[in-house]
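fyi for ur records
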Amino acid sequence: MKKLKITFNSPVVLGFIFVSLAVLLLGFVTMGKSNELLFMTYHSALTNPLTYLRLFTHVLGHAGWEHYIGNASYILLLGPMIEEKYGSKRILQVILVTALVTGVINYILFPSVALCGASGVVFAFILLTSFTSFKQGEIPLTFILVAIIFLGQQVYEGVFLQDNISNFSHVLGGIIGSVVGYRLNRRAM
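which gave:
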């Protein structure tokens, strides 16, 4: 009988999840001070170098276990499939672009809102996943349905609910995932 072994099958996704977990634990130990200092983006002085760092690192911070588990579940479910299809470098680029875009837009449009968490990355992955069976000259019905269901829900909740959730970053993440999915698959044809 062949021995089973555990493989590190998705280095970027697993690395992201483990670093986010370490950041969450650090947040508990520091009673949220580490998140405030390094893993949350908000309107701070442009002369502060940490302002620029936080534009990227805010996706590693989470408000608590429930927030982390929700994002980690989707990332672990979707991430390995898209990392296998598009490669580790591309997935890292999607994470970094999503972090930067959501961070900058939050900084500019919502100066009184602090943003942390990987929800934008989750939505980028959700929409990117729907392009995995893309063929030239076709738009997958799964993409259309995912866009309507997930992004439609975020637009609705952003307009009608006041729940401290950055629906705008979810929508931005979805747009980034859609654009990247379309461009990567169009090039592959």
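Helices lie at 11-29, 33-38, 49-57, 65-86, 88-109, 119-129, 141-160, 167-188. thats all i got for now
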